Protein backbone atom coordinates (compact mmCIF):
# COMPACT_ATOMS: atom_id res chain seq x y z
CA UNK A 1 0.00 0.00 0.00
CA UNK A 2 1.47 3.36 -1.03
CA UNK A 3 1.36 6.49 1.11
CA UNK A 4 2.40 10.11 0.74
CA UNK A 5 5.96 10.79 1.81
CA UNK A 6 6.65 13.38 4.50
CA UNK A 7 7.86 16.65 3.01
CA UNK A 8 11.17 17.76 4.51
CA UNK A 9 13.54 20.65 3.92
CA UNK A 10 17.27 20.88 4.44
CA UNK A 11 18.69 24.20 5.62
CA UNK A 12 22.42 24.33 5.02
CA UNK A 13 24.02 23.19 1.78
CA UNK A 14 27.50 22.22 2.98
CA UNK A 15 28.82 18.67 3.12
CA UNK A 16 26.47 17.56 5.90
CA UNK A 17 23.41 19.04 4.21
CA UNK A 18 24.30 17.55 0.84
CA UNK A 19 24.96 14.11 2.30
CA UNK A 20 21.60 14.37 4.10
CA UNK A 21 19.96 15.12 0.76
CA UNK A 22 21.23 11.87 -0.76
CA UNK A 23 19.99 9.93 2.27
CA UNK A 24 16.57 11.61 2.13
CA UNK A 25 16.23 10.79 -1.56
CA UNK A 26 16.88 7.12 -0.79
CA UNK A 27 14.28 7.05 2.00
CA UNK A 28 10.91 5.41 1.32
CA UNK A 29 9.30 7.75 3.88
CA UNK A 30 10.80 11.20 3.17
CA UNK A 31 10.77 13.63 0.25
CA UNK A 32 13.01 16.70 0.06
CA UNK A 33 10.77 19.55 -1.05
CA UNK A 34 13.42 22.27 -0.55
CA UNK A 35 17.20 22.48 -0.30
CA UNK A 36 17.95 25.94 1.09
CA UNK A 37 21.21 27.84 1.42
CA UNK A 38 22.77 31.11 0.32
CA UNK A 39 24.79 30.36 -2.81
CA UNK A 40 23.22 28.82 -5.90
CA UNK A 41 26.65 28.02 -7.32
CA UNK A 42 27.87 26.06 -4.29
CA UNK A 43 28.69 22.36 -4.82
CA UNK A 44 25.70 21.34 -2.69
CA UNK A 45 23.26 23.51 -4.60
CA UNK A 46 24.68 22.29 -7.90
CA UNK A 47 24.26 18.67 -6.81
CA UNK A 48 20.67 19.28 -5.70
CA UNK A 49 19.81 20.99 -8.99
CA UNK A 50 21.26 18.08 -10.96
CA UNK A 51 19.01 15.78 -8.92
CA UNK A 52 15.96 17.97 -9.76
CA UNK A 53 15.46 18.95 -6.11
CA UNK A 54 13.90 22.41 -5.57
CA UNK A 55 16.55 24.84 -4.30
CA UNK A 56 16.53 28.29 -2.75
CA UNK A 57 19.30 30.80 -2.08
CA UNK A 58 17.13 32.63 0.47
CA UNK A 59 18.19 30.48 3.42
CA UNK A 60 15.69 30.66 6.24
CA UNK A 61 13.36 32.85 4.19
CA UNK A 62 13.10 30.02 1.67
CA UNK A 63 11.77 27.75 4.43
CA UNK A 64 9.25 30.42 5.44
CA UNK A 65 8.11 30.86 1.83
CA UNK A 66 7.46 27.10 1.48
CA UNK A 67 6.15 26.45 5.00
CA UNK A 68 2.95 24.79 3.81
CA UNK A 69 4.90 22.04 2.03
CA UNK A 70 7.30 21.30 4.91
CA UNK A 71 6.58 19.09 7.90
CA UNK A 72 10.16 18.76 9.13
CA UNK A 73 13.38 20.70 8.59
CA UNK A 74 16.93 19.48 9.06
CA UNK A 75 18.98 22.44 10.29
CA UNK A 76 22.58 21.85 9.21
CA UNK A 77 23.83 25.42 9.66
CA UNK A 78 25.57 26.40 12.92
CA UNK A 79 24.77 26.50 16.62
CA UNK A 80 24.57 30.31 16.51
CA UNK A 81 22.15 30.22 13.59
CA UNK A 82 19.95 27.52 15.09
CA UNK A 83 19.32 29.61 18.21
CA UNK A 84 17.74 32.15 15.85
CA UNK A 85 15.96 29.60 13.66
CA UNK A 86 14.38 27.47 16.40
CA UNK A 87 11.62 29.87 17.53
CA UNK A 88 10.72 30.60 13.90
CA UNK A 89 10.36 26.89 13.08
CA UNK A 90 8.16 26.45 16.15
CA UNK A 91 5.97 29.40 15.18
CA UNK A 92 5.58 27.95 11.69
CA UNK A 93 4.62 24.55 13.13
CA UNK A 94 7.58 22.83 11.46
CA UNK A 95 9.38 20.11 13.42
CA UNK A 96 13.10 20.87 13.67
CA UNK A 97 15.92 18.34 13.66
CA UNK A 98 18.98 20.23 14.85
CA UNK A 99 22.31 18.90 13.54
CA UNK A 100 24.28 21.63 15.30
CA UNK A 101 25.45 21.52 18.94
CA UNK A 102 23.00 24.28 19.92
CA UNK A 103 21.04 21.88 22.18
CA UNK A 104 17.83 23.91 22.03
CA UNK A 105 15.59 20.85 21.97
CA UNK A 106 15.70 17.42 23.61
CA UNK A 107 18.91 15.51 22.96
CA UNK A 108 18.12 12.47 20.82
CA UNK A 109 20.10 9.27 20.33
CA UNK A 110 17.80 6.95 18.35
CA UNK A 111 19.13 3.72 19.90
CA UNK A 112 18.47 5.12 23.37
CA UNK A 113 15.48 7.48 23.49
CA UNK A 114 13.84 7.66 20.05
CA UNK A 115 10.32 7.01 21.36
CA UNK A 116 10.55 9.85 23.88
CA UNK A 117 11.35 12.40 21.17
CA UNK A 118 8.81 11.72 18.42
CA UNK A 119 6.20 14.25 19.54
CA UNK A 120 8.62 17.08 20.33
CA UNK A 121 8.86 20.23 18.14
CA UNK A 122 12.66 20.37 18.25
CA UNK A 123 15.22 17.64 18.80
CA UNK A 124 19.00 17.95 18.95
CA UNK A 125 21.22 15.28 17.43
CA UNK A 126 23.99 16.35 19.85
CA UNK A 127 27.29 15.81 18.00
CA UNK A 128 28.97 13.13 15.91
CA UNK A 129 31.09 12.16 18.90
CA UNK A 130 27.97 12.12 21.04
CA UNK A 131 26.13 9.78 18.68
CA UNK A 132 29.14 7.44 18.75
CA UNK A 133 29.94 7.55 22.48
CA UNK A 134 26.69 8.23 24.34
CA UNK A 135 25.09 4.84 23.57
CA UNK A 136 28.19 3.17 25.00
CA UNK A 137 28.11 5.39 28.09
CA UNK A 138 24.41 4.60 28.50
CA UNK A 139 25.08 0.86 28.22
CA UNK A 140 27.94 1.08 30.73
CA UNK A 141 25.75 2.93 33.21
CA UNK A 142 22.98 0.34 32.84
CA UNK A 143 25.41 -2.41 33.77
CA UNK A 144 27.20 -0.39 36.47
CA UNK A 145 25.07 2.02 38.54
CA UNK A 146 28.11 3.47 40.34
CA UNK A 147 29.98 5.18 37.46
CA UNK A 148 32.20 7.91 38.88
CA UNK A 149 33.62 9.46 35.70
CA UNK A 150 33.24 9.07 31.92
CA UNK A 151 35.67 10.30 29.29
CA UNK A 152 35.35 9.97 25.53
CA UNK A 153 37.99 10.59 22.89
CA UNK A 154 37.02 10.79 19.23
CA UNK A 155 39.63 10.87 16.48
CA UNK A 156 38.51 11.99 13.02
CA UNK A 157 40.18 12.89 9.75
CA UNK A 158 41.06 16.56 9.66
CA UNK A 159 39.61 16.75 6.14
CA UNK A 160 36.20 15.64 7.47
CA UNK A 161 36.00 18.59 9.89
CA UNK A 162 34.51 21.44 7.89
CA UNK A 163 34.21 25.12 8.79
CA UNK A 164 31.01 24.64 10.84
CA UNK A 165 32.64 21.92 12.97
CA UNK A 166 35.68 24.09 13.62
CA UNK A 167 33.63 27.20 14.43
CA UNK A 168 31.48 25.22 16.88
CA UNK A 169 34.31 23.32 18.57
CA UNK A 170 33.62 24.65 22.08
CA UNK A 171 29.90 23.98 21.71
CA UNK A 172 30.72 20.51 20.35
CA UNK A 173 32.69 19.57 23.45
CA UNK A 174 30.21 21.11 25.89
CA UNK A 175 27.20 19.49 24.26
CA UNK A 176 28.89 16.08 24.08
CA UNK A 177 29.77 16.31 27.78
CA UNK A 178 26.19 17.27 28.65
CA UNK A 179 24.93 14.28 26.68
CA UNK A 180 27.32 11.95 28.49
CA UNK A 181 26.15 13.34 31.83
CA UNK A 182 22.48 12.94 31.00
CA UNK A 183 22.48 9.55 29.30
CA UNK A 184 25.40 8.11 31.25
CA UNK A 185 23.93 9.13 34.61
CA UNK A 186 27.31 10.54 35.60
CA UNK A 187 28.05 14.08 36.78
CA UNK A 188 31.77 14.07 35.90
CA UNK A 189 32.44 13.77 32.16
CA UNK A 190 34.96 14.93 29.61
CA UNK A 191 34.93 14.94 25.80
CA UNK A 192 38.02 15.23 23.61
CA UNK A 193 38.15 15.59 19.82
CA UNK A 194 41.34 14.95 17.84
CA UNK A 195 41.58 16.16 14.24
CA UNK A 196 44.07 13.85 12.57
CA UNK A 197 45.81 15.22 9.42
CA UNK A 198 47.24 11.82 8.44
CA UNK A 199 47.14 10.67 4.82
CA UNK A 200 45.44 8.45 3.86
CA UNK A 201 42.61 9.82 6.00
CA UNK A 202 41.75 7.93 9.17
CA UNK A 203 38.25 6.63 9.82
CA UNK A 204 36.42 7.87 12.89
CA UNK A 205 37.32 6.06 16.10
CA UNK A 206 35.76 6.76 19.47
CA UNK A 207 36.98 5.45 22.81
CA UNK A 208 34.89 5.55 25.96
CA UNK A 209 36.58 5.20 29.35
CA UNK A 210 34.76 4.95 32.65
CA UNK A 211 35.98 4.95 36.23
CA UNK A 212 33.98 2.37 38.20
CA UNK A 213 34.88 0.93 41.59
CA UNK A 214 33.70 -2.62 40.86
CA UNK A 215 32.71 -2.99 37.20
CA UNK A 216 30.53 -5.89 36.12
CA UNK A 217 32.47 -6.68 32.97
CA UNK A 218 30.29 -9.56 31.73
CA UNK A 219 27.06 -7.63 32.08
CA UNK A 220 28.70 -4.60 30.48
CA UNK A 221 29.81 -6.63 27.47
CA UNK A 222 26.32 -8.05 27.06
CA UNK A 223 24.57 -4.69 27.14
CA UNK A 224 27.20 -3.00 24.94
CA UNK A 225 26.89 -5.77 22.32
CA UNK A 226 23.11 -5.32 22.25
CA UNK A 227 23.49 -1.55 21.91
CA UNK A 228 25.96 -1.88 19.04
CA UNK A 229 23.50 -4.16 17.19
CA UNK A 230 20.72 -1.60 17.64
CA UNK A 231 22.89 1.24 16.31
CA UNK A 232 23.96 -0.79 13.29
CA UNK A 233 20.30 -0.92 12.22
CA UNK A 234 20.58 2.74 11.20
CA UNK A 235 24.38 3.21 11.11
CA UNK A 236 25.69 0.12 9.25
CA UNK A 237 29.30 1.28 9.57
CA UNK A 238 29.27 1.32 13.38
CA UNK A 239 31.71 -1.38 14.54
CA UNK A 240 32.90 -2.47 17.96
CA UNK A 241 36.71 -2.53 17.80
CA UNK A 242 37.36 -3.29 21.45
CA UNK A 243 34.80 -5.02 23.62
CA UNK A 244 34.73 -3.66 27.18
CA UNK A 245 37.86 -4.47 29.18
CA UNK A 246 39.30 -3.29 32.47
CA UNK A 247 42.75 -1.75 32.29
CA UNK A 248 44.59 0.35 34.91
CA UNK A 249 41.41 0.72 36.94
CA UNK A 250 39.35 1.93 33.96
CA UNK A 251 36.64 0.25 31.93
CA UNK A 252 37.46 0.87 28.25
CA UNK A 253 35.65 0.19 24.99
CA UNK A 254 36.17 1.48 21.44
CA UNK A 255 34.21 1.76 18.21
CA UNK A 256 34.99 2.69 14.63
CA UNK A 257 32.50 4.38 12.30
CA UNK A 258 32.72 3.97 8.53
CA UNK A 259 30.57 6.19 6.35
CA UNK A 260 28.16 4.90 3.72
CA UNK A 261 29.91 6.92 1.01
CA UNK A 262 26.69 8.56 -0.19
CA UNK A 263 28.21 12.00 -0.87
CA UNK A 264 31.11 12.10 1.54
CA UNK A 265 34.14 9.76 1.61
CA UNK A 266 33.75 6.59 3.64
CA UNK A 267 36.34 7.83 6.12
CA UNK A 268 33.95 10.64 7.14
CA UNK A 269 32.03 8.38 9.51
CA UNK A 270 31.78 11.28 11.94
CA UNK A 271 29.49 13.13 9.56
CA UNK A 272 27.70 9.99 8.45
CA UNK A 273 26.69 8.89 11.96
CA UNK A 274 24.92 12.13 12.85
CA UNK A 275 23.15 12.19 9.48
CA UNK A 276 22.08 8.55 9.83
CA UNK A 277 20.74 9.32 13.31
CA UNK A 278 18.80 12.31 11.96
CA UNK A 279 17.31 10.22 9.14
CA UNK A 280 16.35 7.45 11.59
CA UNK A 281 14.49 10.01 13.69
CA UNK A 282 12.75 11.65 10.72
CA UNK A 283 11.67 8.30 9.28
CA UNK A 284 10.24 7.25 12.65
CA UNK A 285 8.23 10.50 12.71
CA UNK A 286 7.03 9.85 9.16
CA UNK A 287 5.95 6.27 9.96
CA UNK A 288 4.10 7.55 13.00
CA UNK A 289 2.24 10.16 10.98
CA UNK A 290 1.15 7.97 8.05
Keywords:
12 strands, Dihydrodipicolinate Reductase, domain 2, 10 helices, 5-stranded mixed beta sheet, single chain, alpha/beta, Rossmann fold, 2 domains, 290 residues
Structure characterization notes:
By secondary structure, this protein is α/β, with parallel strands linked by helices. The protein folds into two domains: 6-125 and 272-289, Rossmann fold (3-Layer(aba) Sandwich), CATH 3.40.50; 128-266, Dihydrodipicolinate Reductase, domain 2 (2-Layer Sandwich), CATH 3.30.360.10. It has helices at 15-26, 43-50, 60-65, 79-92, 110-117, 128-143, 163-167, 169-184, 217-232, 269-289; strands spanning 6-11, 30-36, 55-56, 72-75, 95-98, 106-107, 122-124, 147-157, 189-196, 204-212, 238-247, 250-257. The strands form two sheets. The chain has a seven-stranded parallel sheet with strand order 3-2-1-4-5-7-6, sandwiched between helices. Helix 2 (43-50) links the parallel strand 2 (30-36) and strand 3. The chain is globular. The chain starts with 5 loop residues before the first strand and ends with a helix. The model has no long low-confidence stretch (mean pLDDT 96).
Helix and strand arrangement:
Elements: E1 6-11, H1 15-26, E2 30-36, H2 43-50, E3 55-56, H3 60-65, E4 72-75, H4 79-92, E5 95-98, E6 106-107, H5 110-117, E7 122-124, H6 128-143, E8 147-157, H7 163-167, H8 169-184, E9 189-196, E10 204-212, H9 217-232, E11 238-247, E12 250-257, H10 269-289
Parallel strand pairs: 1-2, 1-4, 2-3, 4-5, 5-7, 6-7, 8-9
Antiparallel strand pairs: 8-10, 10-12, 11-12
Helix pairs in contact: 1-2, 1-10, 6-8, 6-9, 6-10
